[in-house]
Write a structure and sequence with these properties.
Blueprint: E1 5-11, E2 16-18, H1 28-39, E3 47-53, H2 54-59, E4 70-75, E5 87-89, H3 92-97, E6 103-108, H4 112-118, E7 126-132, E8 140-141, E9 151-160, E10 163-171
Parallel strand pairs: 1-6, 1-7, 3-4, 3-6, 4-5
Antiparallel strand pairs: 2-8, 7-10, 9-10
């Protein structure tokens, strides 16, 4: 597997990402950013892959599943779990093994346990983080970003309703 692999996540000031298996905010520009980053390819013949846990899949409204113009892979340990419109995988590694030549970039899109599995993996290229400059009531948290992702590129700032947030790309220092 030699595809770039990114985590994409929105987190509040305390790294909160969810409560009761839902996002605690509704930020339209962040959803636009997420769709743009995970859909856009340099090669128009290719698609990107989004990898998510079962709970994340179930949290997406049915009329938005699968996420369009992307290959959707749902991680589940249940071989009998039925998924319509997406592929099923038992692990992140197995999911990444499905990234053939038709795939340009792989994105890990949640939830919490999937992020925890991926954050220190050697295959991880970088992290797209929407940093929400506010605290929300959360029961699921994003892990601390490892020091090896020390190159931070600001990608924009947004103010929406009473919430301001910024888009950041964390990458390893180029050697």
């Amino acid at each position: 597997m030699n595809k770039p692999v990114y985590i994409i996540v929105a987190a509040d000031e305390k790294n909160g990402i969810g409560i009761d298996s839902k996002m605690p905010w509704n930020l339209k520009d962040d959803m636009r950013f997420f769709k743009e980053i995970t859909t856009k390819t340099k090669d128009p013949q290719k698609k990107n892959m989004v990898i998510m846990g079962r709970t994340t899949w179930e949290s997406i409204p049915a009329n938005y599943r699968p996420l369009e113009n992307r290959i959707n892979i749902v991680l589940t340990g249940n071989p009998d779990y039925q998924i319509e419109g997406a592929r099923k995988s038992s692990s992140i590694h197995d999911a990444l093994d499905q990234a053939d030549d038709s795939i340009e970039t792989c994105f890990i899109i949640g939830g919490g346990s999937v992020y925890h599995q991926a954050i220190n993996a050697p295959f991880l290229t970088g992290i797209y983080l929407t940093r929400i400059k506010k605290q929300f009531n959360c029961d699921t948290f994003f892990p601390d970003i490892p020091d090896k992702f020390s190159r931070i590129t600001p990608l924009g700032e947004v103010e929406e309703e009473d919430v301001s947030y910024e888009y950041l790309l964390y990458e390893r220092e180029k050697v």
